[in-house]
Amino acid sequence: MSATTAPISAVVVAAVEVEAGQRLLSPTFERWAEQAANCGHCARPIRLRGQATTFDRATGEVLSTYDSATEPDGVLYARCGNRRASVCPSCSHEYKGDMWHLLAAGAAGGMKGVPESVATHPLVFATLTAPSFGAVHGLRRRSGRPTMCRPRATSARCEHGQPLGCRTVHAEGDRLLGQPLCPQCYDYTGHVVWQWWAPELWRRFTIALRRVLAASLGLTQKEAHTLVRVSFAKVAEFQRRGVVHFHALIRLDGPPTESEEFPAPLVDVTVQRLCELVHVAASRVWFDAPATAPGEPLRRLRFGMQVDARAVTADAIRETGRADDPDAGLHPETVAAYIAKYATKACDDFGLPPRLRDPEAARRMGIAEHVCRLLAEVHHLARTGGVKYLALAKWVSMIGFRGHFSTKSRRYSTTLSRLRSARKRWTVERLRDRLTGPAPVDERGAIPPEPEVKVEDTTLVVSSWSLDGIGWLTAGDAALAATAAAQAREWADERAKRRRELLRG
Ligand SMILES: [Zn+2]
Ligand SMILES: [Zn+2]
Ligand SMILES: [Zn+2]
To answer: Do residues 348 and 369 both lie within one domain?
Structure first.
């Protein structure tokens, strides 16, 4: 709270400051702050009441007991675990970190139980986009420099009198980006139908790639399966025009054996060849969408023409990011960081609230007109499109995308649940440690980095919990947690950066 020269009675002190002050001055503040740190300064933690007892599995001896009644306000806080940054920046950040580890481990190997040798397997970074549903304003580049949006004679007009060209060089942040040149020409139904079936197109792509790979080796799929396996990790990203595209890491492995989970493929396929096969498979995939109205012409859905497939190799230059040169290789770390960035984005870019049902509400919130029209189309198809489109009603805030934002095939890398169980175990250990000694903190009072996965389990934890509620008890507590969270993320990013520099040097 800030000092002021105005008379106290004239100062309107915000309630949140009073609450934060009460918390700061309370005798149990230290423990409260420790709890807040333990749940990662989650924005809306789950409040639990209950007890846990830890036994030694072999002897049955009670190693420790824990009761939330001993905590400030009698509650234990647990993470909400929401991966959307707009809901909980802290949990979303944690998820992003997990995703990065998972993808980096699969691309570069040498961490989280994935051997270094996977780095020698053919690995491709592919981007599969949607086709065009009508011309939209965009950031165009020619040999790395920004250029005109749609250089055509501006005198040419569509049947609605809108110009077919745009000679503007748009800048980042321009509200026109992603908006159609003519909303009446734009195929809103086609857009939503494609988005609704995009997960099916992706599924068919994974099948097609395995098929063309076998054919290129002159083998049946069954024969190929005994020599080579295709693993995938993908994330879906929303483009400005409101349609998803897929970024995928595609790697070839051999069939796993008793001793090796990620052996090299038993056939010789170069990474360049794999890039070509990705192109072939993507161009062959199609799906005939069920009609949205009686007598409607058939809609054959495909990926767009702009399929990009690039080799991922350790000798490529790092941090080139989205380099314009489509033939340049990409470094595994660059790709993993890039792909993990999209794992948490969802629709946050459009400013859509998570449980939006009513497209009119979006319009009142000042959401871009193009997005509002898309939402209205999702709503419309859910009501009139028939049984195959009924469930669209649940996916309005995702503009009709029902797929997962990030998925991977079973063999791609370590799993999120393995990372999670390591973390859960650690939390339990910390609870136990707290009773026998102070919780470990580093010199800045932050939680030290987590230990590696320990699989052996000699203890048994018996616990019973009941839900007290969700969120911090007061707005003041929430404000304190949010401040600490922002700081903790800064430190974690700094640590990660330094770690990467060390690895590089
Ligand atoms: Zn959270
Ligand atoms: Zn334009
Ligand atoms: Zn038009």
So the answer is: yes
Question: Residue 320: pLDDT above 70?
Answer: no
DSSP label at residue 385: S
Question: Which of 354, 275, 296, 352 is closest to 80 using CA atoms?
Answer: 354
What percent of the chain is predicted at pLDDT more than 90?
34
Residue 193 shares a structural domain with residue 291: yes
- Measured between alpha carbons, how far is 213 from 228 in angstroms, rounded to an integer? 9
Indicate the number of domains in the chain. Answer: 2
Question: Are 3 and 38 a contacting pair, CB within 8 Å?
Answer: no
Instruction: Determine phi and psi for 338, rounding to 5 degrees.
Output: -65, -45
pLDDT at 304 over 90: yes
How remote is the CA of residue 430 from the centroid of ligand 1, in Å? Answer: 19
Asked whether residue 281 falls in the same domain as residue 378, the answer is yes
Please tell me the distance between residue 132's alpha carbon and the centre of ligand 1 in angstroms: 37
Q: Computed over its alpha carbons, how large is the radius of gyration of the chain?
A: 27
Which ligand is located closest to the Cα atom of residue 174? 2
Beta strand pairing call for 287-289 and 76-78:
unpaired
Residues 436 and 292 in one domain: no
The answer to whether the CB of 489 falls within 8 A of the CB of 92 is: no
Q: Considering the chain, what percentage of its residues have pLDDT values greater than 70?
A: 77
Answer yes or no: are the C-beta atoms of 197 and 221 closer than 8 Å.
no
DSSP assignment letter at 469: E
Q: How far is the CA of 345 from the centre of ligand 2 (A)?
A: 25
- Is residue 224 within 8 A of residue 214, CB to CB? The reply is yes
Under 8 Å between Cβ of 278 and 284: no
DSSP state of 226: T
Coil vs helix vs strand at 2 = coil
pLDDT digits (tens, 9 = 90+) for 88-130: 888 877 777 777 777 777 776 666 667 777 888 899 999 999 9
Domain that holds residue 197: 115-133+187-408
Q: What is the DSSP letter of 128?
A: E
| Mean confidence (pLDDT) of the chain | 80
Kindly give the distance from the C-alpha atom of residue 400 to the centroid of ligand 1, in angstroms, as a whole number.
25
Assigned domain for 121 exists:
yes
Which residues on neighbouring strands pair with residue 236, listed in sequence order? 246
DSSP string, 258-327: SS-SSPPPSS---HHHHHHHHHHHHHH--EEEPPSSTTPPPEEE---S--EEEEB-TTSPTT--S-S-TT
